């Protein structure tokens, strides 16, 4: 059992650069129509490091949804798109905007790899219902006139032992063979923890750390919970979020961690144990949130694995049941990026306040007024629009919002962690 503890305040390796960045970003804030805080997209104003790049990362502005593009180095410049969903109540045109943005960035209407972190509409899109239009990646695939293509489709697989399949998942099962036959998709692969089979170019590593709540050959987090509490998933099926694919993307000393809507648990209080699962009610339906985050951290600790990263794309839009203290302590990120649109209380106050103790925090679209009725304090996080990251060829530095940042090698991370613990 992993015990909750707060990270010491004042741990921040970025120093004066972040104060300059804070001042720059505060000039861009504008109010959204919903009253939540937004900013103008900063893409056009960025100061880019001289090419060639060893890696490019583009976290798109999706509202309350997700999509992120990774581009490898020349000459291949292979591309990996992680998620392409649609915000609830959106205009169902996000897929067209993202497809156009991908074409601008890569010169082609398609990607080498598409990885859907899990089968929820805000990460994959919806097949539509009745007169409702399809959305997200499903809309691109279901439109036979659209030329968008995918080399390899990667997802968590079709295991439904602990939860019913979502409508978006069923749409993939029904459509994938036709998309392959039509040449829209090259092949479909299930995500397997370990080597990902994703090749973005020499010097870039893409490692799958978890899929379906499972790490390596060990029993999955859900299997362990079911063994300890038989029948829990029959009474309250697992959340689809529990099955999210966790990835570590590395170029030299640069590391990025992203894991869709991977679940943890709400803060239990000082020196109290995080629960292995949380049973929640949504109207008349029950759902179980499995603490996969703590399961992963325990695994890393047993391996003696250092997981300090430069970038953490926050799990589950910064929900109160994610980004637990043990996970943040293990990742110790320099920047945390929240993909939120002002709904569902995201990002949660306790998550943002926890993250601000050790990292600079960026929000892609808006913060929820239910959690932040007076707006997001600029000292905690900034709403910046699309986040673009360019990593140098040697992987020793990167630019984010036009500002150069150093990457920390293992020795520097170890020394910093020792100081952090003291």
Topology, pairings included?
Blueprint lengths: L15 H11 L2 E3 L5 E3 L15 E5 L7 E5 L7 E6 L9 H13 L3 E6 L5 H4 L11 H7 L6 E7 L11 H15 L3 E6 L3 E2 L8 E7 L10 H8 L3 H4 L10 E6 L2 E5 L18 E6 L2 E6 L1 H12 L7 E3 L11 H7 L3 E4 L10 H7 L4 E4 L18 E2 L3 E5 L5 E4 L2 E4 L3 H12 L1
Parallel strand pairs: 5-6, 6-7, 7-8, 12-15, 15-16, 16-17, 17-18
Antiparallel strand pairs: 1-2, 3-4, 3-19, 4-5, 9-10, 10-11, 11-12, 13-14, 19-20, 20-21
Mean pLDDT across residues: 87
Name the strands of the widest sheet in spatial order.
8-7-6-5-4-3-19-20-21
Write down the domain tally.
1
Q: What is the β-strand count?
A: 21
CATH structural architecture: 4-Layer Sandwich
Report the CATH topology name. Answer: Metallo-beta-lactamase, Chain A
Structural class, from helix and strand content?
A: alpha/beta
Strand content of the residues, in percent? 15-25%
Shape: globular
Q: What is the tally of helical segments?
A: 11
Largest sheet: 9 strands, mixed
Describe the structure in your own words.
This protein is α/β, with parallel strands linked by helices. 24% of the residues lie in helices and 23% in strands. The protein contains eleven helices and 21 strands. The chain has helices at residues 16-26, 94-106, 121-124, 136-142, 167-181, 221-228, 232-235, 292-303, 325-331, 349-355, 410-421, and strands at residues 29-31, 37-39, 55-59, 67-71, 79-84, 110-115, 149-155, 185-190, 194-195, 204-210, 246-251, 254-258, 277-282, 285-290, 311-313, 335-338, 360-363, 382-383, 387-391, 397-400, 403-406. It has a nine-stranded mixed sheet. The protein has an eight-stranded mixed sheet with strand order 9-10-11-12-15-16-17-18, covered by helices on one side. A hairpin with an 8-residue loop joins β9 and β10. The longest helix is centred in the middle third of the chain and has 15 residues, at 167-181. It is globular. The model is unreliable at 1-50 (pLDDT under 50).
